[in-house]
Write a structure and sequence with these properties.
Blueprint lengths: L1 H33 L18 H5 L7 H11 L4 E6 L2 E7 L4 H12 L7 E6 L3 E6 L3 H10 L18 E4 L16 E4 L11 E8 L1 H8 L17 E4 L2
Antiparallel strand pairs: 1-2, 1-8, 2-7, 3-4, 4-6, 5-6, 5-7
Helix pairs in contact: 3-4
């Protein structure tokens, strides 16, 4: 009798255990079924062939600037520009052979980066140097374009004669003399000692007398004109 009672109790516990396990399994399945699946992330594929040259490269840096200007030079063939100042206009022809520096100047001109800057270094009988400014709008334009330097290109033997436009060094003590792309200088007289060191990339075709007028301006100890000489604008002629 006692054995029969024990058997019944074991069977009862076994049934309850199976029911309990089944209930737990059902709860787990129910929870899994009610979980909302995460939405799939959308991958946007951009067709680079539909981007402009600027969209593909900007902002520029030391790694991509030469590739950008190499392509830009092939698209934009213009090589004549005009500088407007209160003393008159200066017309320039840029050399096609120095294509990276020509392309850089044309690109910055078209993006109005020089507009509102100044001839900030004036040394009589030597050079007038322009393109610098502490104007917030000018600095904003520069930031949008990027930060980069250009290597010199002196392979073609262009001389720094009177009226030559050239590009100043960004690292004077560096033998490679990487050049600041946002500035330029124009020689007031022959400066042959600059040949082979700085990239002459164009010449004045009209307005040498304007350079002389600017060179006559009174300057401070840092050769900055006492009365600012603004570059009102630079525009591409063709």
């Amino acid at each position: 009798m006692r054995g029969l009672l024990l058997l019944c109790v074991l069977l009862l516990f076994n049934c309850e255990d199976k029911q309990s396990k089944a209930k737990k399994t059902e709860e787990v399945v129910t929870k899994i079924d009610t979980i909302t699946p995460k939405s799939e992330e959308k991958v946007v594929v951009i067709d680079s062939s539909k981007l402009t040259l600027e969209e593909r490269y900007l902002p520029l840096n030391d790694d991509n600037a030469m590739d950008f200007f190499g392509e830009y030079a092939e698209i934009h063939k213009e090589n004549k520009v005009r500088i407007y100042t209160r003393f008159g206009n200066i017309d320039l022809e840029l050399f096609n052979k120095t294509k990276y520096h020509r392309a850089n100047f044309i690109f910055l001109t078209k993006n109005k980066v020089f507009d509102g800057t100044q001839f900030h270094r004036v040394v009589k009988n030597f050079v007038i140097q322009g393109g610098n400014s502490d104007n917030i709008e000018v600095l904003r334009k520069r930031r949008n374009i990027g930060r980069y330097l250009l290597p010199p290109d002196v392979r073609y033997g262009y001389k720094h004669i009177r009226g030559t436009i050239s590009i100043p060094s960004g690292e004077i003590r560096n033998a490679y003399k990487l050049a600041s792309p946002f500035e330029f200088f124009i020689t007031q007289s022959n400066q042959f000692h600059l040949d082979g060191e700085y990239t002459a990339f164009g010449r004045v075709t009209n307005g040498l007398e304007v350079i002389d007028k600017i060179a006559e301006q009174e300057v401070d100890g840092g050769h900055w004109p006492i009365h600012n000489v603004y570059i009102n604008k630079i525009e591409v002629l063709d």
